[in-house]
Write a structure and sequence with these properties.
Elements: E1 5-6, H1 13-18, H2 32-45, E2 63-64, H3 65-70, H4 74-85, H5 98-120, H6 127-139
Antiparallel strand pairs: 1-2
Organism: Oxynema aestuarii AP17
Protein name: DNA phosphorothioation-associated protein 4
């Protein structure tokens, strides 16, 4: 894994920048890779997979998978691909197309998650507080049958 570059949709570039911690503002995430990993997990949770139609050309520019690997997110790429395709062979290091497929699946879930975040954070002044409320709401959300989802955190 290492040559794919994850693109950010042009219409979500400002949101990604606003969610990161830089010199001018204090966003809840340290890097663009952190934002996209969170968004991909949220996109998968909400079943939102949206292809990137037009990528941002400048900030944030496409992010090499090496950045995600260095931050420990390579397992998220693999897990999302296995779940999406139902085929564990997608993590094969010998398949030359597997990395691009994993990267595209991650990118599309991240874009879907950013769409969810854009709606959830609309009008928010402090993104950190709003994200905390979002996470609390997800933790206690009931599934479509009125049952609470199984929460592994009670075993920690």
């Amino acid at each position: 894994m290492g040559s794919y570059r994850v693109k950010v949709a042009k219409d979500k570039a400002e949101l990604v920048k606003a969610l990161t911690d830089d010199d001018n503002k204090e966003g809840p995430f340290s890097t663009y890779a952190d934002v996209l990993a969170f968004a991909a997990a949220l996109g998968a949770k909400r079943h939102q997979r949206i292809p990137v139609q037009q990528a941002a050309k400048r900030e944030p520019s496409p992010i090499p998978t090496e950045i995600f690997i260095s931050r420990g997110y390579d397992f998220l790429f693999k897990l999302l691909a296995i779940v999406e395709l139902g085929n564990p062979n997608i993590i094969s290091p010998t398949d030359p197309n597997a990395e691009a497929q994993r990267g595209q699946i991650f990118e599309e879930y991240a874009n879907g998650g950013l769409e969810v975040l854009r709606e959830e954070l609309r009008g928010a002044i402090d993104y950190s507080d709003k994200l905390a409320l979002l996470l609390i709401g997800e933790r206690f959300k009931e599934d479509e049958h009125g049952q609470k989802e199984f929460d592994l955190s009670r075993f920690l």
